Fold Toll-like receptor 2.
Amino acid sequence: MPRALWTAWVLGTLISLSKEGAAEQASSLSCDPSGVCDGRSRSFSAIPAGLTAAVKSLDLSNNRIARVGGGDLRKCVNLRALWLGSNGLHTVEEDSFSSLGSLEHLDLSCNRLANLSPSWFRSLSALKFLNLLGNPYTTLGETPLFSHLPNLRILKVGNNDTFAEIQAQDFRGLTFLEELEIGAETLQRYAPGGLRSVQSIGHLILYMWRPALLLEIFVDLLSSLEYLELRDTDFSTFRFSETSVDETSTAMRKLTFRKAKITDESFNEIVRLLNYVSGPLEVEFDDCTLNGRGDFDPSVLDTLKYHSNVETLTVRRLHIPQFFLFYDLSSIYSLTGKVKRITIENSKVFLVPCSLSQHLKSLEYLDLSENLMSEEYLKNSACEHAWPFLHTLILRQNHLKSLGKTGEVLLTLRNLTHLDISKNSFQTMPETCQWPEKIKYLNLSSTRIDSLTSCLPQTLEILDVSNNDLNSFPLILPQLRELHISRNKLKTLPDAYLVPVLSVLRIRRNTIHAFTQEQLESFQKLKILEAGGNNFICSCDFLSFVQGRPALAQVLSHWPEDYLCDSPSHVRGQRVRDTRLLPSECHRAAVVSAVCCALFLLFLITGALCHHFHGLWYLKMMWAWLQAKRKPRRAPRGDVCYDAFVSYSEQDSYWVEDFLVRELEHSQPPFRLCLHKRDFVPGKWIIDNIIDSIEKSRKTVFVLSESFVKSEWCKYELDFSHFRLFDEKDDTAILLLLEPIEKKAIPQRFCKLRKIMNTRTYLEWPADETQREAFWLNLRAAIKS
């Protein structure tokens, strides 16, 4: 009994842990409100539990889900997209997808599904995309897999290792496919008609290392396939064998060889393959290798029935190991008579022989980008009667260095209208140039030119000078409709009178700070202005103009996301449309006027207060005090020249001269008095005279009267005497009251005088003559003390 209980407990624990693991897996899914769930690379070992009808897209790729059970997705009835790629999936139960009637996208690629079952897809009538690539099956099964998928448009099947056979019934039930991709690198058998059951295929991508079965597949697809792309095919051993074709007209319009290996012999066979295509054909060689020297068999090429059907030829990144032993290509001249478009990119082309150029009588478009063309070899290529109908020539990123020579070399191309010579190193532009007379489009972008001259043709309608070092646009181009001048150094829009019919202006990433209403209105025919990425100064005028005209959004391309403020600093990075400045920033004149008015009013009030409270007088006294403080505190005893310095008002000079001087200087012993009228040094600053006279006198006699109180110089003299009185603790001041003065009548600014009269004894000039003798005796005694 205890053992049974122990077993039950262990089982219960395991069940509980499994439920917790399932809940944890479901919780690790990230789903947004629209029902899109992302479970990529989450280490799931099973379909997460708890999925509901709310899930519309489920990505479980790059996990470790090995099995899909019948009930794992049963509740996902609204699921439209399911990714189960790269999981190691090896088992899918028959009814796993039975409830997914709305499923449109199913990816089961890169798993371990060795057998495919039609029952998986029986309920998926809405399916449009199905990817079964990279699974280790050898065939697609004994019964048609896709007969219940009427809406399927993109199908990917096969693998690189084990897929060996395409059977007659594999694609039955499919009528139209936009894209069919088949990994058939190890294909060994192809049942005739295996792909013919599909009535129409837009694009077939066929991985086929050995092209032994290519001709059979090719013939089956002639009437139904529009575009055949062969990838990773080695044509070194490919040999063409005659076969009967009933179709007089074919649907194929494009044939691409991608990463193919070709020899001189196999090239002849490929050209013979093209003989089965009756209509105009585009042929593309992308990243291919030609192991040969161009020794093609002209006898084979001359027997072709439709050798002139190739109208478009594209060659990109063609590698020719024996490039410098290559022939002159004269053997393929017969194939070029009706070719209208040729693109040869990044294939080290440095010369197109004149004879080949003359055979390209129907050529209208030639792209030789990313090659080694220079002016000297271009002259041979564009010889007389070469490319007579060429209207578009692209020489982007070659070795052209002289703009003048390039234009002169191309004069033979009388029908040339479009010329792209961008990404060449011209650097400078001559003053005059010659160009084909019909040229309308010129691309000079990324050519490092730093100025524009009258070298440019006046017939231009479209000019691209982007990504250079231009800081101005000074040219008059009367027919110019489009100007592309982005990524330069322009500080303003070009003047409208230079380009009167301009309708498109692209001037991104320059150094433009703003544009005005007047500038835009001057371009009368402007429909598109692309000016984003500039360093806009978001001034009030600019913001008012841009934000106040919603119609600008129809003219400004990439508005508003590309139009950002660069300054002021506090709005840097904000959209011009959303930027708001403070009223003080937008009304600076008013703010400055208000501040000036306030300062002027403050000045007036300050002046009035200073006048009322004698502020100027106090300032003068402060300065005088500072001057006094800088002087030595007391003159040396040998420098004292006077017994007393007399401070008096000019209105009291009669009394000082007639009474004071006579009584003191003519007495026995005589006193020597210092009077400003007599003893001040001429030319010396008056304040220095006052300071020196007080310091050279033992006493200072103040003759007080109403006039004294009104005299500022007397006030200075009183102050300096007061400095000595308090700073040196010395009794030097003698007050002589010439006439009665009410203390209340003394102004408040004479605070020291009021204080001295309150604290010190002073002499009063007696009106009675009998008392004057005593007055003089007391004065003499005060001076001597």
Notes: The mean pLDDT is 86.
